[in-house]
Amino acid sequence: MEPPEPDIVTNLPQPEVTARPEAGSALGEVIFDMKNVSIWYSAFKAVTDVSMTVHENEITALIGSSGSGKTTVLRALNRLNDLVAGARLEGEVAYRGEALYGKEVSATAVRRRIGMVFQKPNPFPKSIYDNVAYGPRINGERNKDKLDEIVERSLRRAALWDEVKNRLNTSGLSLSGGQAQRLCIARTIAVEPDVVLMDEPASALDPIATGAIEDLMRELKSQYTIVVVTHNMQQATRVSDRTAFFYVLTQGDSDTRTGVLVEYGSTEQIFQDPRDSRTRAYVTGRMG
Amino acid sequence: MSIVTPERQGRPAGSLTERRPLGDRGFQVLTLGAGLLVLVILVLIAVSTSQQASSWFSTEGTKIFSNDWNPAAQKFGALAFIYGTAITAIIALILAVPVSVGVALLLTQVVPYRWARPIVYVIDLLAVVPSVVWGLWGILVFAPWIQHIYSSIGSGVSGVPVLGPLFGPPASGASFFTAGIILAFMVTPIVTSLSREVVATVPAIDKEGAYALGATRLEMIRGVVLPHSQGGIVGAVLLGLGRAMGETIAAALVIGSSATITSHLFAPGYNMPSVIANEFGEATGVFRSALFGLGVLLFVFTIIINVIARAVVQRSARRGRGA
Amino acid sequence: MAPAPAPQQKVDLREPRSWRRSKNRIVTTLMVLSFVLVIIPLGFVLFTVIVKGAPVISASFLTSSIPPNVLPANIGGIGPAILGTIEITALATVLAVPLGILGAIYLNEYGGNRPVARLIGFFADVMTGVPSIVMGLFIFSIWVLHFGFSGLAGAFALGCLMLPIVIRSTDEMLKLVPNSLREGSYALGATKARVTVTVVLPAALGGIVSGALLAVARAAGETAPLLFTILTVTTANPNVFSGANTSLPSQIFVNASSPYVGAQGRGWGAALTLIVIAFILMIAARLVTARFARFAR
Fold first, then answer.
1. How far is C268 from B269, CA to CA, in rounded Å?
2. ipTM summary value
3. B71: cis peptide before it, omega within 30°?
4. Per the CB < 8 Å rule, is B4 touching A112?
5. Is A233 within the bounds of a domain?
6. CA distance linking residue A79 with residue A263, whole number of Å
7. pLDDT tens, position by position, A231-280
8. Closest approach of chain C CAs to the CA of A226, in angstroms?
9. CB contact under 8 A, A187 and C183
10. Under CATH, what is the fold of the domain B50-322?
């Protein structure tokens, strides 16, 4: 491991941050607890010193402009960054009290509990049935009846069953954008994860499909914990319980950029009464 | 309409700390082994053929490069075959390269995209014809026919200074030059397809820049396409050279099977792969060892040429991307 | 103050008649000529093979045993050679294709930029240029000298020829599989081996099969590797693992050097058969590519 790069954010203004949401709102169990997390891609420090908690059965939104590190933080939660050569994380990430990046922890086991839906729908070039059954199958489920049941249940939960129940054997690639994304959601929940991470799940979809996805998110909340990255503020206000605002910090002299967490609180508070000036500028639309 | 069935089992059982499954690790080892097989085979080829050739190397010593090949008298100087390999390969390249590069340029710069595909199919057809069929056609049809042409040319240039020794008599259908022609046919698809790949990567912006200055197509090609692709084309030519040197069966049938060094290209000759193919069956002792030795030389030459070719292509591709 | 308008000059936009223009024309013609030069010999060979081979071919020709060379072409046939080609090439395919695919998987999914992977990739490319006769000598020295001639030895030699070709073409196909598919599979908690076998390979399957078919076509037509490994005989040998054998290209080679017209006639028939087999494999490869491209979209 190379020695850490000189800290480029020595003059980082203390973010006026509430890393823990204010008392009074009913707090579910802490699912994720991030303390001073910084993430590098080789020599580039993508995210600096993020501390926040995510609670059970809530939708937590990560918002901010491009390059502010929100997707990087999201992908750290299911260790998908491990796939990128040169990616490195410092700080602590606890999942239900256990260290997510502990030495003995298997990334594969992590991902079976923490699923992810991607920005661009990526159905496998297999049939709709096989797409949804893929996860259960690799977890060892072989019983045909059980698989049928899982597939139907997942597709129903993803609000896709009625549209595809008569063509489960057709290719997953034949679905429209919105349907394909719901298929990916069905695929993700078919393995009964604990958490579902969503990376701008509706950004590639038209408004009607977007609405369907948002409805789905609200319904899934009762069963799963959801963390969603979105650059659509209206979406954040529509679906999320808590919102974290990320910001790109530039060192003027050295032209280095990194993402930082500026403010985190209930969605209502972030959007109606933001405490940091940068948050205010973003949510009122004065910043891109 | 969705129904969220409220039966959740609670969070998934088991801990996060699973060992990496044996199957996953085993699979990685398996694939690595398969890949290493390439290196292992190459090393084994070098070792085993050299071993078989060792008695030739030790009995002849440096005389392996002499021009004295007489198995009956236990003489195994191989210069004639090295000469033959070089000559036929050079002839093949002289004939094939201009044609191949021309077709590559035709396909990428001149022909509209829709017509390019059928033409590529035709080139691929050329590549699919097996070597032995080229040889069969070569010796039974082509050689007798071209012998007449050789004779006419031969008598025509009989006394002439440079041309005489090159193209004068003897004129045999099965000869260095015929082998060179057949090899050219076989090498063309490779050089064409590799040149095509290289030439196709010239950025359109550069080409448009030349056209915008009022250049004709030829000027654009000379000024932009060729400088950009010359590394890659050199690599393609070298690969063609390697192929021409190693191609055995077609050459064996049409080269004339005569171990002589002569400037007369229309005379029968011999080259390394052909003598191995034709004589191995009956050879024993030092004779067989000599043939193995020729195989070693062939292996070494083609490896060197291929390594240089790949290095040249890689370097020019890297430079092209950086440019 | 605008300058006085220049005297009216006609702007001539016509094609300048110049040496530049003619040079361009000449070179274009030369390029077309090159293409013609490529087509002519191909056409000639195909034409000759068809004209001389077709009269010889019949159902009995394809199944009868090989007669002595001196007998005329309408007696006997090349049955043993066809059997030999099928069994030897099939065995070589079974040996080389799975290993080639596994090797390419290593290069693409596991090796990355590691020195071992770069070495393997480089030398796999170099190995495609090793003359096929060297493969034959190699197998002769490490196998035939100890275990004798057999179709198996020939299959080993052909397999050595096919291995780097399959590695190379499979590698290209694996590179084309978009990373988003892999990520989708990882995100469901699949191990790398699972991801590769259940998502990446199926996605690249069309291209892999097509590449393998082309390698088979190449191997079926090779003579040199078989010269010293199967000891071309004229009797059919259904046991590919022991005993000398024959194949179409080997038989053609022998017949081409024969002075007897009968043998030469059988040679043309065999050549036509071989070319048809190679073409069928090539067309199958194209069809597979086309069909899977449609499926993937």
1. 26
2. 0.88
3. no
4. no
5. yes
6. 24
7. 888 899 999 999 999 999 887 677 788 999 999 999 999 999 999 998 99
8. 15
9. no
10. MetI-like fold (1.10.3720)
